[in-house]
UniProtKB/TrEMBL annotation:
PROSITE patterns linked to this entry: HMG_COA_REDUCTASE_4
Entry protein name: 3-hydroxy-3-methylglutaryl coenzyme A reductase
Pathway: Metabolic intermediate metabolism; (R)-mevalonate degradation; (S)-3-hydroxy-3-methylglutaryl-CoA from (R)-mevalonate: step 1/1
Keywords: NAD, Oxidoreductase
InterPro entries assigned: HMG_CoA_Rdtase, HMG_CoA_Rdtase_bac-typ, HMG_CoA_Rdtase_cat_sf, HMG_CoA_Rdtase_NAD(P)-bd_sf, HMG_CoA_Rdtase_sub-bd_dom_sf
Enzyme Commission code(s) on record: 1.1.1.88
Broad enzyme group: oxidoreductase
Catalytic activity: (R)-mevalonate + 2 NAD(+) + CoA = (3S)-3-hydroxy-3-methylglutaryl-CoA + 2 NADH + 2 H(+)
CDD domains for the chain: HMG-CoA_reductase_classII
Pfam families: HMG-CoA_red (PF00368)
GO molecular function, one term: hydroxymethylglutaryl-CoA reductase (NADH) activity
Homology family: Belongs to the HMG-CoA reductase family.
Amino acid sequence: MNHQPIEGFSKLTKQGKMDWLVNEYLDGNQEYQNILQQYWNDNAELQKLHDEFSENTISNFYMPYGIAPNFLIDGKLVALPMAVEESSVVAAASKAAKFWIDKGGFKTTIINTEKLGHTHFIFNVESHKLLHFFNFKLKKKLFEATEAITANMRNRGGGILDIKLVDKTADMAHYYQLKASFDTVDSMGANFINSCLEQFGKTLKEEVAKEEDFTQEEKDSLQIVMNILSNFTPDCVVRAEVSCKIDDLKDDSGISNEEFARKFKQAVTIAEIEPFRATTHNKGIMNGVDAVVIATGNDFRATEACAHAYAARDGQYRSLTHCTTENGIFRFWIDLPISVGVVGGLTNLHPLVKFSLALLGKPSAQELMSILAVSGLAQNFGALRSLVTTGIQKGHMKMHLLNILNQMGATEEEKQHFVVYFKDKTVTHHEVISEFNRMRAQ
């Protein structure tokens, strides 16, 4: 089917957008209109608020919002809000929290909170000449030019921490960076950082034009390519960890404490050395992290990008978590680079985000970093615990059972039958279909 492009789609009303989509792409089938409209909120003001979070909105896309209780984090008992659609994520996190609650819980340490941004520029000039200009003139001017932008942030205890000139000419001809580090306190700080960087670009251009040590040819060669924050924040890192005596590492699967500790450490080591395993290993960690990131109105895409870049920082993709079993002590930890905020963005607008932050005790950005690292560590512990004992499918598929039954149109009575049927069995898609067809044939 050939479709026609449209001019001015963004100017159409919501109903106009839906009418055009249904008529142009869905053969005018009104059932699709009904699907979109049934997810609208009955509260018109609340729906308008959601519509204005993004562009060209025509409906809401729901995700389950669940709670993982019993997290003991740095001596405080916390219930984690988790927005996630994948079966067994909330259950695994909850089970891990319960496992560690009587063993001291989770301990966290904020290692650093620096965020980064760059002015990327091309300048055909000798690097020593540029470095002298930067050290003795430009750096001071950059701080002065951004004083108005940074005033409020400085009043809250943050601001620009440092600015460095980075010579990248070995990688690309005449390529340099102004690399700036920031402390944005309780905000994620993207807009603040980008505003500072854009001023850096303007100031660089102005100061180069005035500098007598540069020839006109050198001045004309300056190109400000872009000014943008980096979502890779290797110096904005939190550590979360658990530890206990191996003698206390009792698992209900039937294997000994010593065997559990040995196999668990082996599983982590495999993820540290094998990228194919590390990818799935870290994906599981991010199941836990992203669910809380989304529930608290933060940017899960930035979180994902940063975590995976950090996992490959030495040139090979590796596990984000680590494990030791020394002197009779089991220790399991994660170092997670993560940049989040508790003010600005959706945090002051989305009602469920407000609820999530209230539920967590209105944490600071650093406290939320700790909570997120704990959620990822708990998720990884739960997954590895299953993998080295009963296997991942037993628990995961049991959680997935209702999804399969709903797809097949099972009644509530039939669902209860299957819960009992699989009480002592591993759920498989084939077995569910076979038993369902047997029941319906009776």
